Predict the structure.
Amino acid sequence: QEQLVESGGGLVQAGGSLRLSCRASGSIFSINGMGWYRQAAGKQRELVATITTGGSTNYGDSVKGRFTISRDNANIFLQMNSLKPDDTAVYYCNAEILGAGTDYYDDVWGQGTQVTVFS
């Protein structure tokens, strides 16, 4: 069973920085697109950033210029700078994973990591 495990969340003052990490594990043959999403209390889950196998990136409008997504094999990272209270949310890692012995890509989600930004 493929898994995604996030780390790096926490409490930070507005204007500060955090770096999130996500590691994929399990019987993985290949990973396609990967990304970060977030869900604030009482709101729908929204796109933060995605990255393809070729390194092409896409960002949500609210984080452009402040957040940077990167990828290293089965790991992805999210560097978050100039954090604002509105960035407070649970951040989820997502990946399209082709498991060993299967012929389709699973849409896999991590358990989430809390980011809280205080002013």
In short: The longest strand covers residues 28-39. The chain has a mean pLDDT of 96. The two ends are 40 Å apart (CA to CA). The chain is about 0% helix and 60% strand.
